[in-house]
């Protein structure tokens, strides 16, 4: 479909408020060239559907009188669009120009004169130096998705050449002038109509743009535009909201996106900048939803570990636990106490989380007896990678710090529990978190879009994805 794969990314979606984007997308000249190739293939396919009506009439010929003629079964044999250009008009939009195009046709001719004399044959016709220039407007519909339509179109036929087969040679000149004029009118009208149809045919495809993309049962991410695209002489830059929300509840976080700028890279078709705001809005959403909590039981600890979640193990470090709750299994509740903070620095992603850990003894009747509550400060490093059309991650522990918040078993030295909680974080909490992070979250996509030659850089306050794109139909 003509420019389908790029026009969705340049939709003008006006908002009443102008805010900084969480995500920026830049389409480079290389990306526009790929779009031009796809568009020309689509227009060429459309032009092959041109229907030239039968042509008939009467022409008065000296010494012969009236000659009745007809041209029938005109069929498109070939269409060529050898030269085309897609230009950006800074501050305005897109213009497609096609030159030196040609259309080859084949048809039948028939004449009748002196009332009884008939003659017939076939002909081949070639329209050369066809030029097409069209401008495209991009707007938004009521759902916040883009729609496109042709603003203007001009088509002009350069020359028409005809080769007749069969019949008397004196008849050829009769047809040449007439066919030239008739074909010019018919083709020039249909070409622009078909180009407009090709543009209109994009709209069902544009509705596949994931303006709101579901991440999981807790979250969705919004990719609507927060301002009009910036069109320069060699690229189009888009500003998208790039914000996570709880599903069905769009609650704004207590922070706003900071301004950031994409670097002047041009090697890839597409560049996507994902700000720290986007990542932190995800942390806000999951914390608000209560998803950042985990009950840990002994069956989640590797069987070969000498450390068990029971009052015997903990009693080694806190003797009063073993005395007051002998022979009982334990359960830990780890939950975030406030929103985790994600920081992006060059080649480094860190997450700082403040958690509370509540330890319980499990009584024989399954009731839980609280033992203590710890404050747990965690710092992890994150590795970010691609999983299909989703951005995924994995974290590893940098450091942790324990302090006692509340004890129900008397005073004890918290430092003695460091080894236990290091193990719990490394073998239970972080692997569980990484399973979820590996599922990733969706990037802005359109139709059957595939990323190729993709690189990811972590920069100051944002991540930069440089990628080429393929569309699989």
Automatic annotation (TrEMBL):
Annotated Lipid-binding serum glycoprotein C-terminal domain residues: 264-467
One GO BP annotation of this record: innate immune response
InterPro entries the record matches: BPI/LBP, BPI/LBP/Plunc, Lipid-bd_serum_glycop_C, Lipid-bd_serum_glycop_N
Residues of the Lipid-binding serum glycoprotein N-terminal domain: 26-249
Major location category of this protein: secreted
Compartment list: Secreted
Signal peptide (UniProt feature, chain positions): 1-18
Keyword terms: Antibiotic, Antimicrobial, Disulfide bond, Glycoprotein, Immunity, Innate immunity, Secreted, Signal
GO molecular function, one term: lipid binding
GO CC terms, sorted: extracellular space
Domain of life: Eukaryota
Biological role stated in the UniProt entry: The cytotoxic action of BPI is limited to many species of Gram-negative bacteria; this specificity may be explained by a strong affinity of the very basic N-terminal half for the negatively charged lipopolysaccharides that are unique to the Gram-negative bacterial outer envelope.
Complex and partners: Monomer. Homodimer; disulfide-linked.
Family from the record: Belongs to the BPI/LBP/Plunc superfamily. BPI/LBP family.
Domain notes: The N- and C-terminal barrels adopt an identical fold despite having only 13% of conserved residues.
Name by which UniProt lists this protein: Bactericidal permeability-increasing protein
Organism of provenance: Trachidermus fasciatus
């Amino acid at each position: 479909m003509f420019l389908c794969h790029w026009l969705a990314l340049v939709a003008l979606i006006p908002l009443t408020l102008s805010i900084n984007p969480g995500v920026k997308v830049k389409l480079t000249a290389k990306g526009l060239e790929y779009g031009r190739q796809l568009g020309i293939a689509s227009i060429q396919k459309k032009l092959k559907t041109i229907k030239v009506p039968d042509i008939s009439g009467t022409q008065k010929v000296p010494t012969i009188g009236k000659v009745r003629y007809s041209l029938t079964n005109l069929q498109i044999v070939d269409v060529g669009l050898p030269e085309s250009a897609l230009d950006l008009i800074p501050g305005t939009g897109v213009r497609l120009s096609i030159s030196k195009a040609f259309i080859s046709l084949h048809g039948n001719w028939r004449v009748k004169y002196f009332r009884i004399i008939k003659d017939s044959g076939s002909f081949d016709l070639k329209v050369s130096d066809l030029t097409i220039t069209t401008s495209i407007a991009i707007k938004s519909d009521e759902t916040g998705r883009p729609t496109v339509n042709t603003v203007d179109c001009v088509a002009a036929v350069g020359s028409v050449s005809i080769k007749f087969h069969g019949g008397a040679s004196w008849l050829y000149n009769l047809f040449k002038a007439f066919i030239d004029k008739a074909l010019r009118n018919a083709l020039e009208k249909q070409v622009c109509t078909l180009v407009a149809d090709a543009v209109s045919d994009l709209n069902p495809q544009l509705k596949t743009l994931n303006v709101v993309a579901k991440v999981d049962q807790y979250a969705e991410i919004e990719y609507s535009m927060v301002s009009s695209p910036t069109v320069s002489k060699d690229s189009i830059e888009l500003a998208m909201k790039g914000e996570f929300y709880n599903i069905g509840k769009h609650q704004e976080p207590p922070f706003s996106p900071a301004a950031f700028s994409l670097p002047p890279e041009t090697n890839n078709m597409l560049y996507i900048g994902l700000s720290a705001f986007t990542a932190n809005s995800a942390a806000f959403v999951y914390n608000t939803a209560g998803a950042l909590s985990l009950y840990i039981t002994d069956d989640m600890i590797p069987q070969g570990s000498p450390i068990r979640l029971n009052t015997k193990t903990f009693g080694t470090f806190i003797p009063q636990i073993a005395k007051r709750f002998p022979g009982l299994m334990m359960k830990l509740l780890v939950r975030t106490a406030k929103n985790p903070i994600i920081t992006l620095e060059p080649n480094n992603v860190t997450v700082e989380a403040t958690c509370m850990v509540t330890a319980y003894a499990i009584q024989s009747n399954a009731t839980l007896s609280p033992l203590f509550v710890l404050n747990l400060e965690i710092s992890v490093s994150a590795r970010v990678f691609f999983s299909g059309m989703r951005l995924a991650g994995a974290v590893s522990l940098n450091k942790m710090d324990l302090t006692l918040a509340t004890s129900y078993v008397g005073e004890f030295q918290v430092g003695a529990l460091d080894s236990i909680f290091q193990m719990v974080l490394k073998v239970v909490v972080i692997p569980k978190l990484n399973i979820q992070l590996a599922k990733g979250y969706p990037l802005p996509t359109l139709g059957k879009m595939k990323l190729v030659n993709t690189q990811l850089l972590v920069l100051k306050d944002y991540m930069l994805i440089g990628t080429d794109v393929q569309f699989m139909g």
